[in-house]
Structures
1.
Amino acid sequence: MKIKFILPFLLFPVFLFGEEKKITLEQCIEVALQNHPSLFVAIEDDKKSIANYQIARSMRSIIVDGEIRTVEYTKSNSSADSRFSIPGEDTDIGLFAGLSLTYNLYNAKKDVVEEQARTSIDVAKVTNYQVKSKIIYEVKNVYYSYLLARDILAIREEIYNKYKSKAQLSRQLFEQGSRPILDVSKAEVDLANSQLQLEQAKNNERKMRQSLYYAMGLEENDQIDIIPENIDLEKLPEINCTLANLYRMCEVYNPELRIARLQKKIAQLKITEEAGSHYPTVDLLIGLGCENKKLYGMGNIGSNFEAGSWSPAFHGAIRASLPIYSGGRISARVDSATADYNKMIYKEKEILTDIKNQVRDNYRTLEEMKRQIEISELIIKNAQRHQLLAQRSYENGAGTLLELQDADLNVIQAKIGLLEARYNYLLNFAKLVDTVGFGEGILCRN
């Protein structure tokens, strides 16, 4: 697969120097777009739609077939007043071998079928774009989620070490008679809880790492070591569009809605196609080859293959066929196609409603995340101020070392809320970009 040419380049320094190779979000997306199986499926669907269009276009072409068929000619000595001709008695049975050409002169379905196939190509192209957008969104989603899990894991390790030091200090102070046994018990409980949270953070980091490999279309193994690079959380993207503008952009660019509208068009064309069965089809038939006008029986079978028994032949005819009675089949097909068209109308409305709800939810969530980020930053500032006061109190002899450690822990724990708010902002922003169906550069443009 193509990834075989990409990964060695990306990971070459890992094997050469024994260092971890950091990979950016853009590189992860590039690898996913060149390796994800879903994209290859979409490409095959695109090829299939083009092939189906060629099939539809063939209805306008001359169809040439090789043909061998029997022909009949009336015997010169046949009874003139005979109402019916009996093959072999009143007619001579011959054989024609050559080319048979068929050209459609009129078919009410021809243009409609071609337009359906052309629209199916558009559906395949938009589907291809939709698959790419989904892959990009999934990579962003797990990339941000992995970075969050990794950062929280680092904080949980720091918290665990702090609680471990606090538990040791509490026991020492208890043994010295400075602190009660209750402090020791509480420190041990906090240590156990921090250890549990650390194990949960490790498990979550492993799962997110595995999900990142899956989103890139890779299998995690010991030979490929991808370390996502940190991003600048201080510069979060800003939406410079109103909610009404986002609605209008969705109606134009959202791939799911575009596909639904194209499928509705195909369903409408299907009604016209089925209704075209009420009209006749007219074909021009031409036969060009050689003909033996009379075949001999077993007694003289060799004469059938003599050159003198065969002569050039040319046949031409126009064939028209008109359905007279079909048992209600044509009308039933029209009704079925109409029902499918009505279903697509309702589906389009449902998709549009879901898209607007999703956009509104993401838009408002981004505003809420901004406020949560501001509150989290304020909490960190307050925790740092309290930490400074606890440090000065301890240095002046008024405070204890345990109080100072508690202040340190409050600062570390406050960082988790800020990280979660910032990464949740990025996740919702990525979802909003995916729903709108347009690049984030346009949404953030001033």
2.
Amino acid sequence: PLGKELFVRSHDLLHEQGLAFLTINVNDWGNTKCFFTTGDKSHLPYDIFAASFYLLTRYEEYLPHVQDDYGRFVAEESIAYKNGFLYQPVVDVWAYKFLKVLRSFYPDFNPSIRSYRINPIIDVPMAYDFKQKGIMRTFGGTMFDLGRFRFRRLYQRYSVLFGFKKDPYDTFSYIINRQKTSVSKFNVFFLIGNYSTYDKNININKKVFVSLIKSVADYCKVGLKVSYFALEDLEILKKEKRTMEEVINTPLNSSRHSFSKLNLPDSYRNLVELEINEDYTMGYIDQLGFRAGTCTPFFFYDLDYETKTPLLINTFHVIDSALLKYNSLLDKKKTLNEVIVQVKKVNGTFSPVFHNYTFSDEPKWEGFKELFNIILDSHNEA
């Protein structure tokens, strides 16, 4: 340190080339946790710049790790989960701690303070449950229901097909109406890839489906839900991007991957190559919290190439499937509000993921409209 100037001792991480297995000791730091200790002469007890870099670049996801059946990095493998800070946007908390130290050295320093934002994400892997499936898929679904004695679903299927009932997944009028009354712009991602074992949406050549996407795009931001096979094949991804651009008649700006699957760095390199500017994939499907340790969008840094890219990463912090493990609606509300509070404390951006079928009347999703409303209304609360 030079005299009485502000000094933070740096960790070797930011000076290294390539990747290495690091020994990381996480410790308590007031109301948060941190790692990469600095020593007595540093004005911060931890090198928050190196620690933030480690979390934001997803350094640990480049190293060998256990994956789930879909090839995804799982929460249980992360340093945040293992050390109990997955549920806090620690990078943002550290930034506020640093701001406090900065102000003690430079009292006239007065940066503009951001405000809490909501960035709702709505996934559409299958626009309709029964409609627009074609003869063969309808016949196959009927036989499947009969073979498993699913007579309630069979009745529901033909009630929809004969026009007596609305398709349970057709919640788009609700989504559009909710968008009209919300200050937060919804990001709606449609799957338009070819039918496969993993992806079972409506054929994009059907006029009804094209019309649906166009009508949603009149009110919401529409992006591409990248199909499972496009994740590994740049040519398929290129075709899906071109098709979506023809439908919405504007350059595609954002994407989200099927099954929230990410393979770093390849998944993001493909998006950069195709000039897709934003991605909404990063998060955990079975855990609430902050996979990259933040509730602030950030640019993807390619660790192999040691370069910052123009791809903006919007991590999600809550997904409907993770809320299902909480049995009562009361528990779901409590857990959801706890995450919202964490984001509000740092004036961050809260990004929840819901699906079109989440807003259906299916018993499984009872109360989820109320949860969605809690999120949208949190913008107006102190």
3.
Amino acid sequence: MLKEMDLLVESEGAQVVMLEEEGLPPCLIQKSDGATLYATRDLAAAFYRKNQYHFDKAIYVVGSEQSLQFKQLKLVLKKAGVEWADDIIHTPFGMMLKNGKKMSTRKGRVILLEEVLNEAIDLARKIIEDKNPYLENKEEIAKQVGIGAVVFHDLKHYRTNDVEFSLESMLNFDGETGPYLQYTHVRCHSLMRKANYTSPTENVTLDEAEAWPIIVLLGEFNDVVRNAWKEFDPSRIARYALDLARAFNQYYANVRILSDEKQQEPRLNMVYAVAIVLEESLRLLNIRAPKQM
């Protein structure tokens, strides 16, 4: 197709599409020995996916180092008159670092995901054993906490930022971590169990200045999710959940939630809302939210 449209130019025996007017280097389509390249296969794959799946948008989640390649891909499609060229979207992400260095299979600086998850589960199991040795379903909860810690550590960073790998910081129950959110969710359910609370039964007013930061954050949840979707940025949900958990834990530290009979129900209504929003935030990040830990 590119040849028929006179878009291919020979350069030192290779076939390229010139992108000089767009401020980019030529897109190499075929090497001088006739071999194809990533760009060639990406072009073919784009047409196949459009014909096969009739996509509205094709989102390529590929490392930031490939940004030039995807800019060239879109421009070549535009030069070819493809109407859906702008529906090709590159969603780049940063590198995973170990001691400040890029993980690399060729240089032997790599940790397999299975090993990471197993180590995270083992460490979570030890922490849970120390905190709550009589907890039921410890093994299942250790899996939820360990795997959730790894997932959250990745997703809490803006996707183009590089991420430093540290298993110990991932499983810190007091830091900006998945276990911190899960533990806050558990705290909410513990309060509701103590009060035999199941769900809101009527509209009641919570007139406390201490609760206002939480109420404001709860009202922002829909917008946060919508913006995360628009910008392909799960870190928005992760950072929001951390803000909500911090606000709730500060309230928990300053207010004896179950001590005032008149205020108990409206307070628990808010606790219930926090638990729901935290659980949904974690679910959107593909992380489980246990009710006990």
